[in-house]
Amino acid sequence: MTDAGTLRISVLQHAPTPLDVARSLERLEREARAAAEEGSELLVVPEASLTGYNITRADARSVAEGIDGELSAGVAAICRTAGIAILAARIARVGDTLANVAELVDRHGATLAHYRKTHLWGDLDAALFVAGDDLAPVVELCGWRIGILICYDVEFPETVRRLALEGAELVLVPTALMHPFTFVPDHLVRVRAAENGLALAYANYCGVENGLVYAGRSAIVAPDGETLARAAEAPVRLTATLERAAIVRARAALPYLRDRRAGLYSPRQA
Questions:
Q1: What is the mean pLDDT of each run of 10 residues along the chain (270 residues)?
Q2: Which residue among 36, 117, 175, 208 is least enclosed by CB atoms within 10 Å?
């Protein structure tokens, strides 16, 4: 394990396995063990990785469980046996509705945070999910302050800025981004990191799921916007070591957080 001044992180890019929860868990366990053996302390997977993302409402209901169901327990068991923290993502039941959720679990199997996607992408998301009411609180893992978003959420500058203002040093973004929107992983996530002086891990699918062609291009981005690791469009596990000193340097070089004038940014009243 590294000291709190650094954090070794892995991002998994994989082809979707919709509705095959057993296969998804097997993949997660295999990749978690491999990442841990390489020294990673945290593994991030794509949006709805355990259940599939582009599926019908009826199919989603067939695989969705409550927030604390057997799937959650399975992820916790993998964390404990592999000795690594995981940001897992799936479709879950919340009361009588469905939500797009991510769950951060530490290496001991303890859940640190649940997050429900707050910005729904078009008819695809609206047909399946109820939006979350708020961003998840920033939590501590391995001495680092971590925020969570899901896919479309990161495309709104206000989301990452709020997490930064709440102390986030790293934002995790499980994603199901399709073509032709490659400007998001190629450019936008780098801007989000640099304008807030924090690291960002963006985990996307590759391949095809029920007609959606995913863009791949998962990335781990440094606080100055430089890309530490980048995928193409094939399955891969990316790994990089983040340095807290890089956050200090980035925020000194581009002091957006220090120099912001919050009072100027609210819309004028008519």
A1: 84 98 98 98 98 97 94 97 98 96 98 98 96 97 98 98 98 98 98 98 98 98 98 98 98 98 89
A2: 208
Could you give the C-alpha distances from 52 to 61, 144, 218, 239, 242, in angstroms and in order? 12, 29, 18, 24, 29
What would the pLDDT profile of 21-74 be if each residue is shown by its tens digit? 999 999 999 999 999 999 999 999 999 999 999 999 999 999 999 999 999 999
Return the SS3 of 259: helix
**Nearest-10 crossing angle of helices 189-196, 157-165:** 30
pLDDT at site 269? 83
The backbone region for 93, taken as left when phi is positive above 0, alpha when psi lies in -120 to 50, beta otherwise, is beta
Q: Residue 218: phi, psi to the nearest 5?
A: -55, 155
Beta bridge partners of 181: none
Closest to 107 in 3D by CA, of 73, 74, 137, 76: 76
Cα angle 77, 81, 19 (rounded to 5 degrees) comes to: 45
Which H helix or E strand runs over 36? helix 21-37
Here the tokens at position 217 are 């291009």
Strand locations in 6-128, DSSP E? Answer: 6-13, 42-44, 65-66, 85-94, 97-105, 111-116
Query: Active-site residues: which are they?
Result: 47, 117, 151
CA–CA separation, 245 and 87 (whole Å): 24
